[in-house]
Design a protein that fits this description.
Length: 345
């Protein structure tokens, strides 16, 4: 409780910690899916694997048992040494997380994941009906069996499994189905994110009023199903952390002056470049192959970015509380079948 209170006060004041607590390493930008909403081909990045030499050198620079996510703009489980990478991080005392599309390339993958020691596996899934309704999203009819095998095969307390969904206009019923599906098969958490239209301006998403209404119904469904719903703009975690977050979320980071992502997170590219976000491959704060993470994290360039992030990020609102209007946003139609979110299960 004391640690939570201190972190909350630091976030309210935007007092940056000495080093990032969340480090994401781009182990690959190759993928075995081609989702219409994915921006990896628009970012000007090389679609290649991270070398083992670069990976080990990066991890060796992480000396404080950070939470490490081994995911770039691709499918991490197609990297030929992904399980060596998990093992290397675990040997160095780090908590390891991975985000996957669930489309495994070989039958043994489920067993390899279960034996790997990975702490958290997140599966990106926008629908449980394939691409019948979420035509622009992250869907495949082939992944459900794999996801269910991982959930059912894990040992109690050994691995957290999350489902991650992106909310598309008119597809709120798909989100509700994902929540019910996750609860039914035994997942621990459902995470929901906004649709990013930086490079796909024609992709439609709910407006602020619609988004809040959908959250209220989704939250009611999650509570009735007994599964945790994390939605950055509304609520995260559980217990007292969830209570304080919902109470103070608009006051965090000096009342929204700063992006929530910039507080304790760093993204490391396959070339070792440290950037503030996976969406900013050209915002290079320093190279971890050449320097230390703590010195890059607190350098003048990073501080300048934090103070002036809108100069780089424009109207991106993926990691802020309130939606930022887009000049290219088309008028959105009302979601279908909206009812009282407290009453509908």
């Amino acid at each position: 409780m004391i640690a939570l209170l201190k972190e909350t006060i630091d976030r309210l004041r935007y007092k940056i910690p000495l080093r990032p607590r969340q480090v994401q390493i781009e182990i690959t930008n190759r993928c075995n899916m081609d989702c219409p909403m994915c921006q990896r081909e628009d970012l000007g990045i090389e679609l290649e694997h991270m070398s083992w030499a670069h990976f080990t050198k990066v991890v060796n620079k992480l000396e404080h048992r950070e939470n490490i996510t081994l995911t770039g703009w691709g499918e991490p489980f197609i990297h030929p040494r992904v399980f060596d990478m998990i093992a290397y991080c675990k040997e160095h005392g780090h908590k390891v997380m991975i985000t996957s599309n669930g489309l495994f390339t070989k039958p043994s993958m489920v067993e390899d994941i279960l034996k790997s020691g990975v702490d958290v596996v997140t599966f990106s899934i926008d629908s449980v009906n394939g691409n019948e309704t979420v035509t622009e999203g992250h869907t495949s009819n082939k992944v459900y069996e794999n996801i269910e095998a991982v959930v059912k095969g894990r040992k109690p307390g050994a691995m957290t499994v999350r489902l991650q969904a992106t909310l598309h206009q008119g597809c709120e019923n798909d989100l509700y189905d994902v929540i019910r599906y996750g609860a039914r098969i035994g997942c621990d958490i459902i995470n929901v994110g906004r649709l990013d239209r930086q490079f796909r301006p024609n992709l439609d998403r709910p407006d602020p009023q619609q988004e809040r209404f959908i959250f209220l119904k989704a939250d009611a469904i999650a509570q009735s199903c007994g599964i945790q719903l994390d939605w950055l703009q509304y609520s995260v975690s559980n217990g007292w952390t969830r209570f304080f977050y919902r109470l103070l979320k608009k006051k965090l980071h000096r009342s929204g002056q700063y992006c929530l992502k910039t507080f304790d997170y760093a993204y490391i590219t396959r070339e070792g470049q440290v950037t503030p976000c996976c969406l900013l491959p050209n915002a290079k704060m320093g190279n971890l192959l050449e320097g230390s993470l703590s010195s890059i994290w607190k350098n003048e360039k990073f501080d300048h970015f934090r103070e002036n992030y809108r100069d780089t990020c424009g109207n991106c609102d993926l990691w802020v509380i309130d939606q930022v209007p887009s000049k290219t946003q088309s008028p959105a139609s009302k979601p279908a079948n909206l009812q009282n979110p407290v009453l509908v299960k």
